[in-house]
Amino acid sequence: MRKEFKIGLAGIGALLILFFGINYLKGISMFKPESYYNVEFENINGLSLSSPVFANGYQIGIVRDISYNYKNPGHVVVGIEVEENLRIPQGSQAELVTEMLGTVKMNMKLNHEATVYVTPGDTIKGVANSGILGAAEENLLPQIEKMLPKLDSILTSVNALLGDPALKKTLHNAEQLTASLNATSNDLHLLMSKDIPQLTSNVNAITENLKGISENLKDVDYASTFVKIDSTLQNVRLLTDKLNRKDNSLGLLLNDEALYNNLNATTANAASLLKDLQEHPKRYVHFSLFGRKDK
């Protein structure tokens, strides 16, 4: 009897642990007093049992029961349990919100301006808020449906464009252009890394030379140099004046036409005499071992 009693107590304890454990996992507090309310919706958007109920972002209870209202077709009654200390003002609403992942939660929108409260067990009005997904479905999907024919036309045009041989030729030309740009880039890199530094070095050397020349020119006595140049030009002018006058030998030689003709005639006679001397030397020079013979 003791053994069977112990086994029975162990079984009852296991059932109690299982019962409380399941309720705990569901979020049901067995030892905390709670109030029960009904919320009526036209569409619960997939709300499930044990879904949390929030007020101002704080969980105040859970969904305990969901049933179809056969007395008022088209409506669903959701039973919720909330903390006993929470008093729900009249005019409050329960809102269903669909989240990004598709889960549905209930938000209690409390009317804090009211001074009369809902009695536990009464029915609260429920509204649906489809959230971002609902807004996308209501606003974005119609726009997408309008765009589908245009998208189909665009895809047809794109396919025609991709099948055009001119596009392949253009891509080939673009590839060749890219290769040319790469070659140009390599040449430019070589120019920047080799020729430009050398040119810069030469420019620097030229600059240094010009600097040296500038330093040398700075030491030149320009006034004395210009005086000497003026003196030289004066002498050249005097020489030119003398050459243009006939009161000197060089002037006569350059300006007297008769003297010039005489010199030409004398030169011509001298040339003729030399030529005759070369051709007939015996006319001018005679040698004899026995004396001169009269002619």
Compact overview of the structure:
It contains six helices and seven strands; from the N terminus they run αβββββββααααα. The chain is α/β, with parallel strands linked by helices. This is MlaD family protein.
**Roughly what fraction of the amino acids lie in strands?**
15-25%
Largest sheet: 7 strands, mixed, barrel
Could you say which structural class the secondary elements and strand pairing correspond to?
alpha/beta
Determine Rg (CA atoms, Å).
64 Å
Principal-axes geometry comes out as: rod-shaped
- On the 0 to 100 scale, the average pLDDT is 78
* H-E string: HEEEEEEEHHHHH
List unreliable stretches of 5+ residues.
none
**How much helicity do the residues have?**
55-70%
- In total, the number of strands is 7
Instruction: Please report the distance between the alpha carbons of the first and last residues.
Output: 203 Å
Give me the number of helical elements. Answer: 6
Strand order of the largest sheet: 1-4-3-2-6-5-7
Organism: Bacteroides gallinaceum
Protein name: MlaD family protein
Keywords: Membrane, Transmembrane, Transmembrane helix
Domain Mce/MlaD: 35-99
